Amino acid sequence: MSKAFPAATIVGYPRIGPRRELKKAVEAYWAGTSTAPQLDDTTRHLRLNSYRHLAGLGLGESTSAIPASFSLYDQVLDTAATFGAVPDRFQDLYDDGGQLGLDAYFTLARGDAGRQPLEMTKWFDTNYHYLVPEIGPDTRFTLANNWILRNVAEAAEQGLTVRPTIIGPVTFLLLSKAADEAPAGFDPLSRLDDLLPLYIQLLEQLAEAGAQWVQLEEPALVADQAVLASEVAGAVERAYRFLTAAKVRPAVLVTTQYGSLGGLLPILGGTGIDALHLDLVKGELPAAADLAALGDTTLVAGVVDGHNIWKADLARAATTLSTLAATVTRVSVATSTSLQHVPHSVEDEPQLNRELRTWLAFADQKVEEVVTLSRLVDNSPAGSIDAAIAEASAVRASRAAAEGVIRSEVRDRLGSLTPSDFTRVAYQERTAAQETALQLPALPTTTIGSFPQTAEVRSARARFLRGDLNAEQYTTLMKEEISRVVALQEDLGFDVLVHGEPERNDMVQYFAENLDGFDVTVNGWVQSYGSRCTRPSILWGDVSRPEAITVRWAEYAQSLTEKPVKGMLTGPVTILAWSFVRDDQPLGETANQVALALRDEVSDLERAGIRVIQVDEPALRELLPLRKALQPDYLAWSVASFRLATAGATPATQIHTHLCYSEFGAIIDAIDGLDADVTSIEAARSRMEVVHDLQEQQFARGVGPGVYDIHSPRVPDEEEVVALVEKAVRQLPARQIWVNPDCGLKTRGYAETIESLRNLVNAAARVRAQL
Fold it and tell me: What is the 8-class DSSP label of residue 329?
């Protein structure tokens, strides 16, 4: 067991590949156009190429500085599969050798015709989503998947020493939910002592496979519950004293990302772990007394931001490292989080403005920053990074003075706002006006916005961007697709229609391309969940709207039908959450700039005759700070920005919003504070859990708890949807309830979508007839 930890490392690296090779390989396997050996060959090359690339960037081939952080779908699912934490409904997935193979793994993630997949929810305060393990008092833990051992072995065959990574035991159980069959009040953390021996077995096997270090990820320990709950502190101490006492094991690095470890630092540092990673970007520099508790444990200082794309302030990072070096026995340099949250390389974006490119650091550039800073802790000559610090400081000064970063007309408009700009007339008055204007039945049906994007639609957009189609030809093709989507909804019997969004590549990027203060990438992909990737836009300057963005498409769709068509906008918080946002001013100020641009769009939609306008905020919960002390300020500005965007609407205009894939109980007051007339919320995969929270809080506005999980290819049958709608009606007044899918349909195919939507409309009609 080696105790020499490298001077420079990263917590994780993008696993999708520079050109989304993982996405394409996995989806080809799902589609049946490739085999398991072909998928394995592609992913093996992707892993090894990443390791070699990182070694070439300065992390070295034999120092354990390179994390083996690859996953076919999700790191939490990987851990559940490794330890056989499988709900009862999936027990038949084990093969004859007691292992969970490739198809079993994907079935847990995606479900099948008769079984719902594991629930999905946000990963801390990021826009990545993980699969939630389900654990009960009788869940049988067993080493059921050996992919982590394979990753170590295949690297060793190529002369590479990598550091295997897996979710730590405390975080794994804290992120799990009680299985359906568990008794009331059951806490998955109570199974810790049953799980720990399996971690010991895994550590032994990793050591035998040649792993010198193992990375156990414990980001859940930065949350308030980890600091305040004595049982969590006790679990941390018990778990890591047990694991470090193993006779045969690699050296143990524990990583804590997305915030401060707080009072758990001295507890964890005293357990005998060999290295402890701290997020020193979102977290505070610990007190000297807490650092002293580390003793000989290496402190891995996360001073380079792994969650955003701006170049590091090397001078500030150097000061932090100097402070730590004066207190701690051993210091290494790292990223604050895994680099899975940022694209691969700025070098892949030559089309970006040259000055803007100098401000940016994607994954590869962040590795280089870590390697540069490591010279401060690896006995390099004094002053060895002075030139790099000076260059980084000059870049920051250039960015602050660049044209468009500060625009007086935007600042003046914000400064002139009054409380009335954030307030609509009373909800009851609006409801009466909307009932008269819209004439909707009980349990009205709608979809969330997007419809499946066919190869033809994507091709038309691509040809238009290349110049192969002129604007008139492109508009004709988009109108033809809108006409098909409107006719389909009419045929299915929906009450409020959408235009299907064929012109939109992404719900945030589409707006970023049409707003000042943004830029977009070509290859800047990051993983959202599973094979789903997105290209976050870059919000670098003050934001304004040069002209209307969505009006012509919504107006055309409305001309095709007598039924109301929803105007579709992405809300200010979600635009921020799913972009890389400037870090030189408070987020609330940036959100209000975006909100004013959207406010203008709402006004233009109203003038075009659009009577229902949806302003999506699926990321409202995602940005919620992990620390409770910071949450009130966030909720205040995030709610205010939504209200600023929508408060100019007339009473007869029905404002919808949409939230998805997060736990909402903690923010129902904030959801109510948005003052939307109707809120649609993910509920299918969690089997309507949110309805109980809404009932408890006496939520009095319109609400559409989703009845169709669009993140799985399975088609919910009519009886299943009826059961979900009936559950909602039992707990909430029927007059409040809308019937809709969980989210947009962009990623689904038309055959499954039509069948699912037909079942949805028929189920709503059946329950409506019983009212």
Answer: S
